[in-house]
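--- STAGE predict ---
source: upstream dedup step, 1 unique chain passed
mode: sequence only
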Amino acid sequence: MIHDNVEFHNVAELREVAGRDGLRVQRVPEDVRLCLNAGAQERMLSPAGSEIRFVSAGDKVHVTLSSPGGSAEVIPFFGPFQGKERFQIGKEPKTLELTYPARLKTLEAVRDLPFSRDVWRLVLRNTSLHYHGIEGEGLRPPTVDELPRRRYLSYGTSITHGASATAMHLTYVSQVAWRLGADLINLGVGGSAYCERELADYIAARDDWDVATLALSVNMMGAGFSLSEFSERVTYMVNAVAGANPDRPVGCITIYPHFREFCGDAEERERTAAFRQALRDAVDSCPHENAHLIEGTDMLSNIGGLTVDLIHPGDHGMIEMGERVAGRLGSLLDRDERGGTIRKVRKIRKIKKTK
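--- STAGE serialize ---
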């Protein structure tokens, strides 16, 4: 979406909130957010790889942000090039002074980079964020030619959301996007990926992604969903998202390796196996050929890639998962491109701020 002549990527709405200055950044529209469980409602206010993007005619830009949760993080990128600074955003508005790196100005033209080096990208993470304003010379949104031609949409749990990676660009979904030369749309919701129909319908109705993954869903095990409830919800989500457009591959990822398999009793291991099988069955019975099964246990082969909680991957695990998931999706995209069906779409829409 476009606001103040800059692009807010992976942002569906900038919303005025009573008693707060600035505009609240949220990844789904309010009418969708309020249909989700309480945890997901909160998590959709966490930026999780959302970005503020622009091209500037000048060398300096000032951006003012605040975080009601008190611990948002911003890492600047310039095209694909990571900046050296990390900014922590607290509850009070903070103005970031950003300078375009001098050395990049002298860099000879580089072909085949997904992002133009002219695009300033403020990668956002952690707790909720409010946008207060931006100042700079000749600001404009990036053009189509300055951004990746593909978009990758991801839905899943805290692992997709980005928990335990030491930076947003080290999450496995960011690693997938980087390897595919794609733009990431991250709809991960830590601890609350319950596959609501409203969210499935929202993802299906979007026309701005070319490939998707649905990581379904260890959260539903932990929340006490029955196997039949799990099966019903994932079946609906797989069918809705895959059925929206047969040209868009949808990778359905079974539950990743986690502590119940290593530390749990026989009943927990059997329950994990049953939930994985339910997703296999949902994909197998899906009438749409663009739904593809991805075994989560194959994506993380070394349990040493997990953190000490034995459920969230650390950086090593995230990188391995990114490599492997990208390999699976890349083969699907290559096949579609050979068949001439890959869509080259990018729509930058003007969405009004709402109250």
